Amino acid sequence: MRLSLKSPACRFLASLLLITVVLGASGCGDPAAPSGRRAKSITRSLSGEPASLDPQAAGDTFSFDLLRDLFEGLLAELPNGDLAPGVADRWDVGSDGLTYRFHIRASARWSNGDPITGQDFVAAFQRALSPDSISPQAILLAGVENALGVMSGDLPASSLGISSTRADEVVIKLSKPEPYFLRLLVNAVTYPRHPLTNSAVVGGANFLSNGAFVLKRRVPSTSVTLSRNERYWDVSSVKLDQIEYLFIDSDRDAMSRFRSGEIDLTDALPEGVNERVFPDLAGQIQSGTQLATIYYAFNLRSPSIGGSVPLRRALALTIDRKWLTEKILGEGQTAAYSLLPTSLGGQGAGGKERTVEDVRVARRLYSDAGYSTNHPLVLRLLCPTNEKLKRLAVAVGAMWHEALGVDVQILAKEYKSYLHLRADAGSWDVISAGWNADFPDAINFLSNFESSNPQNVGSFKSERFDALLQRAGEEDRLTMRRDLFRQADQLLIDEVVLVPLYFPITRRLVKPVIGGAVISPMNHNYSKYLYLEKNKGQPLS
Q: What is the largest CA-CA distance in the chain?
């Protein structure tokens, strides 16, 4: 889909407000009838199709949603995000803070009945860091001894600081202490790898996993069905027999199918939806804070804007974040003026709102760069087809057009196509991006902009930035560490590598019959904690 913003900005803004009113007031109807599905089976929606069910190859939110159901690492998470034992039932940490010894529980099994061994984790770590198949999340393991050398190909995989001399143990050695290291072990990149698994069978009939559920059926572009893993070590705590995930990139379509009884739990909610407008949804709308940031990243290899900090600053100055959060989003999101959320040391909502003077400065910078109404800058803005992100793109494009005269071409793509184009630096100038925290530490956000990180889609390269993160990684004084992170965060803003837009919240629909649905700060929503409650309006026959 390609939209062009060449008409006057006032039309766009008026259209946006009209759309908000129309969408917000439509769709009232009768309460959804019971679905009639068999007991202990629920249907969830995802706003996009997972790109991969290979733990070491995955790099997108939707893949992680499924992988958390299919696999389990050495550690697990509770519904509130706290850590819990996983494949490892206990662990020891050396006095130097560098050596971790994990004891694998005797009941840990793969879905075919094979025991899970320490070597399965060694294979996973080595594969993730191999220069031939570097994972999008490999940078999370950079603190493991010799990890950087293995990633670069300078050292063999066998030199990586992970070993297993006993089937029921795995030892991980770090190159320096990492206070958040245990948090990393719930990430998909650390999930074990069965010796029979290879890229040719991942997602196929021979798919092996070790989590609460196993892959039952996959219909490309449509759905994935999971069934309970009877060989999971904690299977007695898994209350659901089956989970079906439907891939629906329209939040409004997902809501419609929820109201008709086809879906029990959504992962998002359209704008303007509340219990006043939709009384049949009373008691079924759930919301919670989220440790995440939505931003626009600039392509620093783009011929038009990549080499000009002043031009990128002009674009940043003309974005009215307060207007976006209040008028376009309007669900309680907070305007962001830094990459880091406030709780991690970012300036958050304490930043500077757009002023008339900002627009004057932006116009001067735009003119100095050689652009005008008669010679406009042409920008290709890439975003997913998600309704909220498309509306946001239209609003930002309208601001750029109104203030500067920029010709914005919005490339709205289905999620897999979006991911494909994201990797092609020649196809876009600005990209709609965001980051949901894997663990609650500033490094998890900032490391995405390190020179060597595969997640660094805008190709930002800065020795100073990399050095700040390296120093922070070596710093054990919390106040000094936080100050280094703030400096790195500010550098991204000063170099206009990105434009932070807002800190999101999670809003979704949950049928009253579903118990255990808790929104965690990192939005990790495991199906293994869900169950069906009796006497909540839906039969369990």
A: 72
Pairing of strands 378-384, 430-436: parallel
Annotated domain spans of the chain: 52-190, 291-503
Q: Which of 213, 209, 205, 203 is nearest to 41 (CA)?
A: 213
Say if residues 88 and 100 touch (Cβ distance below 8 Å).
no
Task: Over range 132-159, report the average pLDDT.
Answer: 91
Output the average pLDDT for the chain: 88
Q: In this structure, which long-range contacts are made by residues 148-153, counting pairs with CB atoms below 8 Å and at least 24 apart in sequence?
A: 150/126, 151/452
Of 201, 205, 212, the residue nearest 69 (C-alpha) = 212
Residue type (1 letter), 129: L
The secondary structure element, H or E, covering residue 152 is: helix 147-152
The amino acid present at 489, given as its one-letter code, is D
Q: Kindly report the backbone phi and psi dihedral angles of residue 227, in degrees, each rounded to the nearest multiple of 5, phi listed first.
A: -125, 160
Range with the poorest average pLDDT among 32-36, 115-119, 442-446: 32-36
Q: Which residues contact 236 (CB under 8 A, 6 or more apart)?
A: none
Please tell me the distance from the alpha carbon of residue 271 to that of residue 324, in angstroms, as a whole number: 12
Question: Residue 7 carries which DSSP code?
Answer: S
Q: pLDDT tens-digit profile of 457-470?
A: 999 999 999 999 98
- The rounded distance, in Å, linking the Cα atoms of 60 and 490 is 26
Residue-level pLDDT at 388: 86
pLDDT band at 13 (very low <50, low <70, confident <90, very high): very low
Burial label, 149 (beta-carbon count in 10 A; 0-12, 13-18, 19+):
middle
pTM for the structure as a whole: 0.76
Query: Helices 387-404 & 356-368, crossing angle to 10 degrees?
Result: 70
Could you name the CATH architecture of 291-503? Answer: Roll (3.10)
Q: By C-alpha distance, which of 434, 400, 448 is closest to 503? A: 434
Tell me the C-alpha distance between 394 and 4, whole Å: 9
pLDDT at 34 over 90: no
Q: Which CATH number fits domain 52-190: 3.40.120.10, 3.90.76.10, 3.40.1170.60, 3.40.630.10?
A: 3.90.76.10
